[in-house]
Amino acid sequence: MQICCKVRMQRAYTILSGGQQDGLVVDAVNRFVGVLDERDVPYIYRKGDGNHERDNWERHLDDAFSFLAGIEPGTKNRLVLGDFG
After folding, report:
1. What share of the chain is helix, strand, coil (3-state, %, to 5)?
2. Under 8 Å between Cβ of 56 and 46
3. pLDDT in tens, 25-63
C-alpha cells in the first residue's frame, strides 16, 4: 500500500483510501486530492491495489478507525475505554 500525505504542522483531518483499480471512484478521489493540494489542505491518502469490493474495504478498516480514534494503526487492542454505564 502506498501512503501519500500532505500534512503540515497541524493534524490532517481528511483521510482517503482506495483501490487503484476501483473504476467507480478512483478518478474522482484523485481529482479531489488535486483540489486539496491546490487549497493546501492537509490529508492522508492511502492507495492500494483493489477494486470497489468488500475485501478491499476490510483491508482499510483498521487504518480508518484508528485515524478516527486518534490512535496508531494496529494498536486498538491496547485501547482502554472507561466505564460508560
Report:
1. 40, 20, 45
2. no
3. 888 989 999 999 999 888 888 887 877 777 777 777 777
Q: pTM of this prediction?
A: 0.62
CB 19 within 8 A of CB 48: yes
Element containing residue 62 per DSSP (H, E) = helix 54-69
Please provide the DSSP assignment of 63-75 as one string: HHHHHHHTS-TT-
Residue 60, H or E segment? helix 54-69
Reading the block at residue 21, the C-alpha cell is 483499480
